[in-house]
Amino acid sequence: MGRFFRLLLDDYSAASFTSFDKDYYGTLEEINEFFEEMKKDKEIAKRQEYILSVYEQFLTGHKTISHTVAYREVPFLVPAKVLATETSELTNYAWEHLNTWRWPYMMKCDKVECSHIWFSCYGKYSRCIKAKFTNLKYESTNGQYKPLGGMIWGYPGIIAGKRGNLYNTLFVEEKVFKNKKEAMKDREEFIKNPDPIFSKFLDDIFGDG
Length: 209
Description:
This protein has helices at 28-39, 42-47, 49-59, 180-192, 199-206; strands at residues 4-10, 21-27, 66-69, 72-75, 78-98, 104-121, 124-134, 137-139, 145-147, 159-162, 165-168, 171-177. By secondary structure, it is α+β, with helices and mostly antiparallel strands.
């Protein structure tokens, strides 16, 4: 397992009249995959030329470079400490997702394979997830289930894959804890009864809608 970093980005699931940041975590290899995914679409790459230029400067040796997120300047990448790791898998799974406006979406998938990491980063403790879905669907207004991913409204490059078979390129938060003790207690409980949380993953698909 390589060294992990936290990357703050604008939260595309925040209401349009607000500005918030969102934590993502990954190794340098995973962060590179995120930016390469973003560059696949030329129109998206043009809209995201600011963050892409920051990344290019980082690659050329500007390791302490900062960037603007939610109208404030923050370090581009900061190191994160891995406290623990686990995996989980669910098959024929169905659940309810609430979007930014607390509107429910009924979801289901044939399978989801998850990696979970408990991180410590500058006094913040969290459990984060990378998930790979097989045949992910949502219930449309006519009651029929349709494959998810035709349109992605979250931050470009975070969600990858083909329609219905989606994964996130970077880890995203599931839970945040007050301290390390609380985080490690969650890990112990997770081992006994895994409870993956897909809310922020799905927010990166639905955005603020």
